[in-house]
Predict the 3D structure of the following.
Amino acid sequence: MMLRTLIVALMLALPAAAAELRGTGDLGVAVERTTGSLLVLDRSEHAAIGRVEGLGDLSHASVVFSPDERHAFVFGRDGGLTKVDILTQDIVGRVMQAGNSIGGAISDDGTLVAVSNYEPGGVRVFDAATLAPVADIPTGSRTLGLVDVPGRRFVFSLWDAGETWVADFSGGPEPAITKITGIGANPYDALVTANGRTYIAGLFGEDGLAEIDLWQEPLRARRILDGYAKDDPALPVYKMPHLEGWALAGERFALPAIGRHEVLWMDARSFEEVGRTAVHGQPVFAVARPDGRQVWVNFAHPDNDTVQVIDTLSGEIVHELKPGPAVLHMEFAPRGNEVWISVRDANRIDVYDTASFEKIAEIPAESPSGIFFTARAHRTGL
Amino acid sequence: MMLRTLIVALMLALPAAAAELRGTGDLGVAVERTTGSLLVLDRSEHAAIGRVEGLGDLSHASVVFSPDERHAFVFGRDGGLTKVDILTQDIVGRVMQAGNSIGGAISDDGTLVAVSNYEPGGVRVFDAATLAPVADIPTGSRTLGLVDVPGRRFVFSLWDAGETWVADFSGGPEPAITKITGIGANPYDALVTANGRTYIAGLFGEDGLAEIDLWQEPLRARRILDGYAKDDPALPVYKMPHLEGWALAGERFALPAIGRHEVLWMDARSFEEVGRTAVHGQPVFAVARPDGRQVWVNFAHPDNDTVQVIDTLSGEIVHELKPGPAVLHMEFAPRGNEVWISVRDANRIDVYDTASFEKIAEIPAESPSGIFFTARAHRTGL
């Protein structure tokens, strides 16, 4: 009896009994905001294969993955940081690390998970294996635009102070902090290019953006696209939210020009505007297919039932589709042959072939928003 | 005592003991040429976790991965195509598909595996799930430089005919073939850029290379770097083997200039030479760290005990190391924080931190050559 108990305990301790032996390179998750759950996705099967509940407030939630593509780290709006095993579909760790947070990142070596917080303002860093606290970086400001860059570093911006900080953990758990001051008024979001070189912050209080070349010492910010909306009297305030939607397509960035029915094209070397494409509505995300040949655009209400596809070479719209009500997010298969689209108010994720534009599959989901594939584990700045 | 024995026996008997439930994003393989085996690697543990034998002649072998990062397809020099389950470490399929072959590729959707053959000359395409034959594309020529590009297409070149062909499987198992003729004499190797747009073939019979922009219809080849060695009387024949070693570092390609102790820099837009860096020996591979900030270079005999690191911005050598005898290959972790180096004649793989240049680990291996991480599954043209 004692022996049997021991054996049962031993078997329970082995996760293999519940979860199937499988590769994890074709998995992903979709955020189900209203139910505070994650839907686990199988790219190969075009199917949902499970659901993980109990993740708290998932409005504006984002997800990063461990290097082995087994664990998802979910950043909730309520300050919750949850580690999910997507093979066993269990929550394996959860901390309420702040009162109000926005976004997270994982270090290039996969050992550190960082979260940027509004309240209390700053960045907190955790051990990716255990979620034990590693470092607390108070900033005295709402903090956002957090990204990882090579060399065990994180970059983030301070809304109230108008600064960008680099926290370098290459020397251990005590980060070396470099502060770039005076980047401009009220950075509200930021991105880093896929190579981890260029950090760009949108400025709520300025008619332009701040660009930092992380390869050039000493670090400093320069203004780009400065005053480019000044000649448009119809547009007294010209902002560009959703910087994470910027797309590097070939030699140009595609920018969703919020407030106008346009996508802007910016040269990736000079950071100067080189063209515009008129689109169906006010763009929210402009996302490049991984090869950069196409840019897929979704739109704000009331045009959020529509997606348009722009050919990168010509800048012309080559396809339009109407997936359904409230298209919130688009995630490409890592090699670009498919795009997965969350259609929130249809409670569905649709999968499209990006060459033929045919719909391949429909997957039921509860008010899906963000879709994240495990291939992100291998990329910088996502 | 009996209890302990039983528990050990139980653990051995459980399938989990043979194949552990785990993510596959941090796995890889190293080719062991002399023993015809694959060493299975765990990036997170800096360790070898198994060996798969019976793969035939692995000289000049290469490997691609299934989208789920579970299966490796190994292309042997003897025409053998072997499918290996890296979780269970079993051979799950093997075909002798030709008498003499060189390189393979997997389609963007992961359903087709293609092999380019010298004898009989052409490309054969197989179902990735079953290894059943799908298509045979005889060319009447030794065929090489095979790569996958978006849209379920493969591109390859014909040594004898001086042509490049595109085989498009988007319509089904009968490929649509487009032939680009007159690209130049005797293409001997080729590469495609990471975005799948630019195909470049080295020409054994010409003092230049052929470049094809796969985004521009009709497809045609143009000559690049034409005659650029003509002004060097010391160098009557100037070739550039190992095109797969080309590195896109920032806005420039780094090219190993075989025959000289130099790395060439070529502008990625204009394809014109923009500089050279003098290096320790005759370079074999010049490989960019994934962020493009560094280029790591290894060398031909007798300098093949050395590796040099070039800073992309300055073009200067910033570090030199001597891992040991016969450095054959360098593979970066997908986010670039580590590089794994095969030191064949030391029977060892060394792992280095690319920021500090410190050696992190040594892994015993039998005459290792190529190292391939599963993250390649998510990339084009590898």
Residues 7 and 13 of chain B are 10 Å apart (CA to CA). The helical segments of chain B are 2-13, 15-18.
